[in-house]
Amino acid sequence: MAAASPIADAIRAYVAKGGYLLAVCNGFQVATEMGLLPGALLRNASLNFVCRPQPLAITSNSSAFTAGYKSQREVSFPIAHHDGNYYADALTLDRLEGEGRVAFRYLGNPNGSARDIAGVLSENGRVLGMMPHPERAMGGQEGGNDGRKLFESLMVAA
Prior knowledge:
Blueprint lengths: L6 H10 L4 E4 L1 H8 L6 E3 L7 E9 L15 E8 L3 E3 L2 H9 L3 E5 L10 E5 L5 E4 L17 H10 L1
Parallel strand pairs: 1-8
Antiparallel strand pairs: 2-5, 3-4, 3-6, 6-7, 7-8
């Protein structure tokens, strides 16, 4: 439903002009529904809502979103979702991996996501969709500060 909202056309136009888009949690769901990212987000395999700090592997540090994690291999971001199980067919998953478009993977998959995928990049690298919440890991008190580098990286690129 959100993919058909009046704002969707403006978002598509912004991305088409080369704008950066960070699609977190439900935003990731909307970005897949809008066709900005491949795949879909399904109900968690456990059928339970999951809310906790989640360790992630940084699998690509060459994007505008992840460039600040040069030597860092892992981060911890909070998760809070019921429908965070990333799904795509095998051909799409192979393409994402082959093109270096898997940005983050779960360490200890909390929701059943295919190939432990927690975040993917668009073909041009300007859209990042992810279920974990880097914005909740900024200053240390609310969930660590590992999210700060993601936003700093994006500010340098923009």
